[in-house]
């Protein structure tokens, strides 16, 4: 993404809470992701969770990095990650990856922000950045994600007993919806009759926030060792600001056995901990 375009998109997220990157992903890659999701659903005999948040006719698959090597391409994609890093910071983490295969007849999901579990006074600077990849066309008829523009600036959470005006994030397959995690949103109602709406939520958080999905436990070490360096950093195997997240004074990459990413916590340099005198 060019610098000028990056600035424009970032400004849209600051003002409206979201932006849509239309046709940002290569068609062959979208087809690959779509095929892999359907394969995983068949092999795991995936069924709806049967609740208002996860859906009654929606197939969800969590922890995608542990399911197929294909999904390693998503969190680090050059058309999306630079914007996420602009919204949060380069030291951000991958909070989770979830596919959402919305079936015909699915009811609307309650509007919510993705950072609702973070107990911080609102509004606040972005702590979560969510990207929703459209693997099929997102239309109002098949349940495109609904959003409330500007809601990331509100000082309260939505009242789930109330209804709010929202708009559908209509976009063709290959597009990516990127939004501040404080933006109110939710899956729409699938009134298509026979059309499934497939998307993948690739969510990031600030480096000091606990991730929604536990990458250390959820992704077997033998799989994590195959990840490229940037993906390992996003999964938390590097130190945050040179300090946070260490294992016995070293970055978690040491425990994983990836020596090239090993750092020493509190090492001298601009990220070192401040010196505390005996008078303090």
Note down, in words, how this protein is organized:
By secondary structure, this protein is an alpha+beta fold. The protein folds into 2 domains: 3-215, Sandwich (Jelly Rolls); 237-268, no CATH class. Helix content is 21%, strand content 16%. The chain is built from 7 helices and 9 strands. The protein has helices at 3-16, 27-44, 81-87, 215-218, 221-224, 229-234, 252-256, and strands at residues 18-21, 58-61, 93-102, 128-134, 146-147, 167-168, 176-180, 185-186, 197-205. It has a 6-stranded antiparallel β-sheet with strand order 1-7-4-9-3-2. Helix 1 (3-16) crosses helix 3 (81-87). The longest helix is centred in the N-terminal third of the chain and has 18 residues, at 27-44. It is globular and about 55 Å long. 39% of the residues are buried.
